[in-house]
Amino acid sequence: MEIDGRSRVIVHLAYPSAHLRTPALFNARCAERRINAVLVPWEVAPSDLEVVWAGLKAVRSLAGVIVTIPHKETVARRCDALEGVAAELLVSNVVRRDADGRMTGRLYDGEGFVAGLRSHDYEPRGRRALLLGAGGAATALAQALLGAGVAELVIANRNAARGEALATRLRTLYPGHRVTAGPADARGFELVVNGTSVGLDGDPASPVDIGTIAAGIMVADIIMKPALTPLLRGAQARGAQIHQGIHMLNAQIDLFIDFLLSQDPATTIPALSPRIAS
């Protein structure tokens, strides 16, 4: 698809941005669907986000933004409206700019993560799950895992108070579910999920002691660069099943496109059944 003066622009907010894989996948899918739009990565430090956000609201060719670490919670607070799970959790990973400059946020991380697991024949329902992290991405994963019917969810965060605060909040939102905060120890769990940036792009660390991972359990990481993080390599060596970050992203691409561009008069989106890429 050729970019021209009518092209709709989407900005991918991140810090850092070198690891991003979403633009390539998003733009290829737009070309496949013959949508005149382009996603470009923007590396924006947290200290600069406020001034950048004000500028984005004034850009009339902007269809919206896709948001990743570390901006998901901050962006949600700057939206004019939040829909669905984003309104419950106050976290957003995609924001549509309407013609009047209003910004409306949604959250698809959790939905994409669970869809990715199921598309690779892993059912989280009934599992005892350990979630590593309590930030914006981890909060979305926590909600989705509870919605998918995990038997128990334990949240392990380096800042223990923040982990406990998220567990308390989720127990209020989802009464009757077993949600607690605990240590980063994989013993006794059937599903371990990394929702942090630990292991990203050359970081040799793992968010959990690899020695506590048992053979046969499922270990998932939402990081996409490298495809095999230190956590996934270590889990694989221990005989665990692994699930890579790219699967969560693949499950979200069409959701992003439909939300950002389906109401945009400058683009024509044909009817399409949701697709999960392998």
Structure description:
With 278 residues, the protein is α/β, with parallel strands linked by helices. It has 10 helices and 12 strands. A 6-stranded mixed sheet has the order 2-1-3-5-6-4, with helices on both faces. Strands 9-8-7-10-11-12 form a 6-stranded parallel sheet, sandwiched between helices. A hairpin with a 5-residue loop joins strand 5 and strand 6. The relative contact order is 0.14.
Total number of beta strands: 12
- Helix share, percent: 25-40%
Strand content: 15-25%
Major pleated sheet: 6 strands, mixed
**How far apart are the first and last residues' alpha carbons, in Å?**
23 Å
Number of DSSP helical runs? 10
Contiguous low-pLDDT stretches (5 residues minimum) are 269-278
Mean pLDDT: 93
Secondary-structure element order, N to C: EHEHEHEHEEHEHEHEEEHEHH
Computed Rg: 18 Å
| Morphology call | globular
Cross-sheet strand order for the largest sheet: 2-1-3-5-6-4
Class from secondary-structure proportions: alpha/beta
Short description:
With 278 residues, the protein is of the alpha/beta class. It contains ten helices and twelve strands.
Show the helix and strand layout.
Layout: E1 8-14, H1 22-32, E2 37-43, H2 49-57, E3 62-67, H3 72-78, E4 81-82, H4 85-89, E5 94-97, E6 103-106, H5 109-119, E7 128-132, H6 136-147, E8 152-156, H7 160-173, E9 179-181, E10 191-194, E11 218-221, H8 230-237, E12 241-243, H9 246-250, H10 253-261
Parallel strand pairs: 1-2, 1-3, 4-6, 7-8, 7-10, 8-9, 10-11, 11-12
Antiparallel strand pairs: 3-5, 5-6
Helix pairs in contact: 1-10, 5-6
